[in-house]
Amino acid sequence: MMDLLLKKGMSLMDHLLKEPKDQLLKEGVSLMDNLLKEGVSLMDHLLKKGVSLMDQLKEGVSMMDHLLKEGVSLMDHLLKEEGVSMMDHIIKEGVSLIDQPTEGG
After folding, report:
1. Cα–Cα distances in angstroms (integers) from residue 16 to residues 2, 12, 19, 29, 32, in the given order
2. Which long-range contacts (CB under 8 A, 24 or more apart) does 74-82 make?
3. pLDDT, tens digit, for every residue of 36-66?
């Protein structure tokens, strides 16, 4: 396996040495240009995705904040309005039961 790789590598080196230098330079520059363009394009794409995800995160935080405020408001309402009313009702029922004469007494 190593022999085959070595032979392939030597053959490639041989081929590259025989190619005109300006042709190799042009191909190298073209390859570098393509890689640079692809890299910039990929970075641009990733940056846009990142910004989009950050926007979604902000939306999520905003929604969580809203839900938290609504939940606190609802809990406050239930505690103040419903809770007081319920406690009042329970106290009145308790007093009513206490005031009723006991059977057999």
Report:
1. 21, 6, 5, 15, 17
2. none
3. 999 999 999 999 999 999 999 999 999 999 9
